[in-house]
Amino acid sequence: MAQKESTKNKKNKGNIAIYIFLTLGSVVMIFPFVWMITTSFKTVPETTLIPPTLFPRSFKNIKAYQQVTNSLPFLKLYYNTLMMIVLRVLCAVIFSSMAAYAFAKLKFPLKNIFFFIVLSQLMLPAQVFILPQYEMISAMGQTDSIFALVFPAIVSAFGTFFLRQTYMGIPDDLLDAAKIDGCSYFGTFIKIAFPLTKSSIAALAVFTALFAYSDLMWPLIVNTRQDKLTLSSGLSTLRGQFAVNYPNLMAGSVLAMVPMIVIYIIFQRQFIEGIALTGTKA
Amino acid sequence: MEKKHKKEALAGILMVLPTIVGLIALNFYPLIRTVYMSFFESGAFGSWRFIGWDNYVTMFQTRSFWKATGNTFLFMFYTVPVTIIFGLLLAVMLNQKIKGKTVFRAIYFLPMVVAPAAVAMVWKWLFNTDFGIINQVLKALHLPYEINWISNSKTALLACAIVTIWSSVGYDAILLLSGLQGISKTYYEAARIDGATLFQQFRKITLPLVSPTLFFVLIMRVMSSLKVFDIVYMMIEKTNPAIRSTETILYNFYQETFVKNNKGYGAAIVVWSVVIISVITLIQFIGQKKWVTYDV
Fold this sequence. Notes:
The structure holds 2 protein chains of 2 kinds.
Chain A: H1 2-40, H2 44-47, H3 63-71, H4 74-105, H5 111-123, H6 127-139, H7 146-150, H8 157-168, H9 172-180, H10 185-193, H11 198-214, H12 217-222, H13 231-241, H14 246-266, H15 268-281
Chain B: H1 2-37, E1 40-42, E2 48-50, H2 54-61, H3 63-94, H4 101-109, H5 116-126, H6 133-140, H7 156-181, H8 185-193, H9 198-226, H10 230-235, H11 249-259, H12 263-287
Antiparallel strand pairs in B: 1-2
Helix pairs in contact in B: 1-12, 3-7, 3-9, 4-7, 7-9, 9-12, 11-12
């Protein structure tokens, strides 16, 4: 009895240590965002106070937001970023699902060579493709467009590889039954197999969306016109403009991060489980 | 029967076609084209002149190129071990029976949903020499505080590394946590009956059983540290005196190719980065046999 009590005590102490560690860590994770938000409501002189103040004198001071939205067309940036994300996700889901199903369940010539092409793309860093991709976009006269933002991600080797793992987990009997019922190969895929991969598709969508959202080098290269920038590349142009005007820089950052954070808070579970899935299956 | 196979083959080909055509046009051709371009000198108005290995010769004789390569490796050594150790530590803690698990998980993952551009922006402000909160806290703790974090060549790369660790530790923790959740509880029960300490349990059960996930995380982390661009680009401006000691390989590539318009030379740099990444990844795959356990 006494021994049991002592192990229980030990365990509680261990848990308290864990809580302390996790809470301190959480403060480190959250503080920069708090600081970003409170700074965005300060005036420039307020940011030079020593010691610094956490809260601005007034949260009604939205001058930084006004100046930032005057110098950067944020509505356009939201639109461009949204279109880039939606189209990249759609392309990744549609094309990768089709290819993944074929690789997992169908027999066809050159299958191994084709799959080798998928794997070799996965191994290589994206930067090695960037320069010729840029040449292609400019040869097509498509710089400064939504199409340019989507272009390098029209097909997804990662998506194909990841969904192939999912399709391999679907038992053949299920698909054979559909075929006996007179479904074509494509029909079996659309009606039977595809609906079974919902959670993997959600995971791929989250992964693709986050990757697109944080992509910086490509949008910076292809789209230079201000109304064709994304949130990421747009933010980088603010640096030169407001060198040390931190309220303005923070206001811009807040505007850039708020939509994704809101989506994240709503779909928090799907985000985290999706990312965990892309990591363990791939 | 014959007809059925033909139909299946046709369906298969048609379904992989968009992806394969896309990969050939968008990746396979560009890869070859990049290697090809690295043997040319790009002149004004899109003219190209074959110069053989000259780009590579110039590259290997350029000090800033070697400096960039060194910086990239230094960045890898700064970020990879710390991120993975903290990630594993977090994952182990989040795998215990504690309250508020989902909230903690969500908080640590938060930086992943914020664009690196915005992350870099706020950290630049935190690192500010005169008014940044970090130096102010150091001052309050009576530590040396007038540190020019991002303009001093001794600390600038470290500052970029800190930001990177901060933003990626949650991601690694999530991946490792899902690896830990796959470990059967019975192993731990058996170990406890045999009187194994927590540390022994970690060494003999957790570490070997999570090693495949750990290996995956390591590969990804090393690769992304060798490809670092965003954070450095956002934190360190061209006019920053610390630029020489923070410029990474891909930063160098971006500058040469898209700012200075030395496309052939830029292509050579990116080929070099692929060589480095491939070699390091290969070494890891060879090394994994020593520590990764697959058969359970």
